Amino acid sequence: MSDTLLFAMEATLNGLTAGVMYALVALGFVLIFKASGIFNFAQGVMALFAALTLVGFQSGQIPFSHLINAMFGTRLHHFGWNMPTLLAIPATVLVMILLAVLVERFILKHLVNQEPIILFMATIGLAYFLEGVGDIMWGAEVKALDVGLPKGMSGAVDDATFAWFGYGFYIDRLEIWAAGIAALLVAALTVFSQYTKQGRALRAVADDHQAALSVGISLRFIWVLTWSIAGIVALVAGIMWGSKSGVQFSLSLIALKALPVLILGGFTSIPGAIVGGLIIGVGEKLFDFFMSPIIGGATENWFAYMLALVFLLFRPQGLFGERIIERV
Amino acid sequence: MNGQGDAMRDVATDEGYVTADGRKIGGVAMEMRNITLRFGGVVAIKDISFDIRWGEIRAIIGPNGAGKSSMLNVISGFYHPQEGDVIFKGYKRPKMRPYQVARMGIARTFQNIALFEGMSVLDNIMTGRLHHMKANLFQQAMWWGSAQREEDANREQVEKIIDFLEIQHIRKTPVARLPYGLKKRVELARALAAEPSILLLDEPMAGMNVEEKEDMSRFILDVNDEFGTTTVLIEHDMGVVMDLSDRVVVMDYGKKIGDGTPEEVRNNEDVIKAYLGVAHE
Questions:
Q1: Considering only CA atoms, which of A281, A270, A262 is closest in space to residue A182?
Q2: What distance in Å separates the CA atoms of residue B260 and residue B262, rounded to the nearest whole number?
Q3: Where is the ABC transporter domain (chain B) (predicted)?
Q4: SS3 string of B3-66?
Q5: Whether the domain at B1-105+199-281 and the domain at B114-195 fall into the same CATH topology
Q6: Average pLDDT, whole number, for chain A?
Q7: Other Cβ atoms within 10 Å of A218 Cβ, number
Q8: Do B97 and A210 lie within an 8 Å CB cutoff?
Q9: CA angle A46, A52, A57 (to 5 degrees)
Q10: Beta bridge partners of B280
Q11: What is the pLDDT of residues B37-91, one digit of tens each?
């Protein structure tokens, strides 16, 4: 087998696993967009905030310690214990649910029946607010996140591919785990939305608010529920990205990568988010592999956006989105 | 049909009355007491009182803009009147949100059809049973214990309604693909799935052809007959209303100008002047 083909295959596999990571972030957007028609600009920051909180709990950091120190001249920093990961994750989930309750109570409730653009602006505000709160609560330095997921080259894949092709593929074990966890997450979300009362209510609210009210569904409860789920998805994305490249501000920028994923997959489709993520991941890696030698590299920074632009021209509703039909 | 041959009917007492065709009408289910509803300076409903009895078909009629739909929205909790009380089952109802009213057993349909367009007919009707489901999230997801029994019981009830309204052939069809008349019927099915104690129908026959109207009238009567459902309906078509209903409230410019059996209403001077006199049919 030729080297080029092997390298291309490796790039494709790497692209698939990277795509899963994009899809994880895009999933959070889709959930909220489906249920409330809001494009939640804060989804990326929610992932950052969740990861920060998780690290904070794990290392027994005292929240707001910098603020307290500055105000009272104390020298607080840590409680002096470490919280086991199995306890820190549920604790962070609780924080994300609390965040959902607060978002509903202080933002959504007051903006019922407003234009989508106003709600969008509100989520931009929320993004900056949350970013600031995250900094004040847990400090702004880069933190390492370790929840016990394996990292580094997968020996099994390396051995197997070496045995087949005489060339070992490099695949990060973390990304294989990410793919597995993403699959579990999607399966859980599907079971939830198709087979439970709350899931049915959620789909009903996404479809028609008035009709949902008339069958006895509380919109406010469903919004809290949606934002809680989006918070949990953000936590999963935060864990994956945080384990990969450290918990730091740039984590919130991965949200921008989710945008082309959504344009490809459609804003309203969960399978769309997955497939869109995979296409972007693979496209990015292959384009980089073939084109970088010709045009001088760094194509990963802009390829996704260019692809999204092409999609917007030919299929603005995305691959799986609901067809946009204007009736006159 | 109902409402005709009124001489045979007892005078309405608190115990109710028996209609000409032998249906037993019960005591007062709901009473609207001095309802006034304003939007800014516009008075949509002005000091209206009337009652709804268990088991009867109660119509609200009136020309366009008379405030009929506003009245229905007051009953279903979508609007909150500035003055007056809604008495339900003998108790004054506190200010409630629409979903709370729905959970009390008051189901409704909408003038402009509010269905879940993306879902199948079956799923739409199943949403009507949401507040009858009690199993917890985990049981439902795992399909455990009471969850499965509950789902089966709910499905059974829904299938009964599907049979009753003769929509078996479209049960798996996405609602968005259905013609108007069938959508109206699915909306009725969803409301019935909740097993409501009071069913509110906002112009159930608007925009239908003669055949569809006849079907819908038959369904409304059969539902009332079979399940004893107390029904409040708003309708434009006078002929339909007179045939269907036991008692009629007539509204004009937000005021009540008539209330009684179809016979009484038909002979009411004010009603003739405001409504029947200018009918174009």
A1: A270
A2: 6
A3: 30-278
A4: CCCHHHCCCCECCEEECCCCCEECCEEEEEEEEEEEECCEEEEEEEEEEEECCCEEEEECCCCC
A5: yes
A6: 88
A7: 19
A8: no
A9: 125
A10: none
A11: 999 889 999 999 999 999 999 999 988 888 999 999 999 999 999 999 999 998 9
Search chain B and give the residue with CA nearest A195: B141
Q: What is the CA radius of gyration of chain A?
A: 21
CB atoms A213 and B141 under 8 Å: no
Q: What is the mean pLDDT of residues A27-55?
A: 89
Q: pLDDT value at position A58?
A: 93
Using the Cα atoms of residue A130, residue A135, residue A138 and residue A143 in order, give the sign of their dihedral: positive
How many CB pairs lie under 8 A apart between chains A and B?
82
B119 against B140, higher pLDDT: B119
| Two structure tokens written together for A288 | 């980089």
Architecture of domain B114-195: 3-Layer(aba) Sandwich (3.40)
**pLDDT value, residue B273:** 81
User: What are the boundaries of each domain within chain B?
Assistant: 1-105+199-281, 114-195
Look up residue A325 and give its amino acid.
I
Whole-model pTM?
0.82
Which residues are CB-contacts of A101 (< 8 A; sequence separation ≥ 6)?
Answer: A224
Q: What pLDDT sits at residue A123?
A: 94
Q: Please report, for chain A, the start and end positions of each structural domain, with discontinuous segments joined by +.
A: 40-263
The per-residue pLDDT for range B155-185, each reduced to its tens digit, is 899 999 999 999 999 999 999 999 999 999 9
CATH topology of domain B1-105+199-281: Rossmann fold (3.40.50)
Residues A200, B127: C-beta atoms closer than 8 Å: yes
* Cβ pair B75, B86 in contact under 8 A: yes
